[in-house]
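G., the chain you wanted modeled:
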Amino acid sequence: MTKSPAQDPDSRSRAESRSEADPRLDTETRIDARIDARYGSLPPQERHVADFLLEHLGDLAIFSAADISRETGVSKATVSRLFRKLDFEDFREVKDHARALRSRGVPTAAPVTSADNDASTGVQRHEARDHENLARLGAGLAEGRLQQAVEMLAAAERVIVLGLRNSYPVALHLHQQLIQTRSKVRLAPQPGQTLGEELAGIGSGDLVVAVGFRRRPVVFGRAVRAVAASPAQLLCLGDSTSRHYAMEADCWIECPIDSEGAFDSYAAAMSLVSLLANGVLNRQLGAGRRRLSAIAKAYDELDELEH
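Predicted structure as tokens:
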């Protein structure tokens, strides 16, 4: 069994000596920040390897240390020496670090290859990944979870849709769809407002929909716990990195946002919004149709939409 740094004195002493060598670095610092902190003091060959690492952050998993040595034209000893200067024991730790960055949503672009220059190939790969995300979403909804979420959205007296950073556009779209099918739907936080104003006074009969895709602000977790401790119901939507909030929620839906590129794809998330909103409309069809008609009439009276 591999010892943790706390159990292994040699490992701990190595970590301490590295930290003492450069206090700006620690085990949580991203590899690009580590390279930036050391770049000025690196000899030319190590700089060449560092440049290669930065250009290939998105696909380090397919390389070995020998591959990097061959691609950069420097010795394996030089490559290993650079890893140690960057606070990595070996290249396996570098690859694990790169995978962890991507799993947290940190954009790590792979270099453009001749195949990627073919637009049709890039679109096909993107389309295939979105299909995979949708299939995984569908599998997660197959055990009655969609019906449970729809019932919660339809039955609540008030609905507050909460989203921050990358999750805000998804929350905004869900709010805009739901408000066409039912009344008393709010989006939080409003511009210039903090979450305290939005969540104060929630109680029995209220539903908070917490949209939490990766790279969430710390306050998201605090908000989830505050809602979970209140009489209100909690519906959580997010990717696998927010799975630990499932235990706090009355209903949890996992929605993958993986992509072939540096940035996540929210196609499945927007499809989930459509499923939820259409489900609410079908759940209360008569009232929903009357509300849609009233909204359409208001559009005409205000002359808001293009004809």
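Confidence is low (pLDDT under 50) at residues 1-27, 108-115.

Shout if anything looks off.
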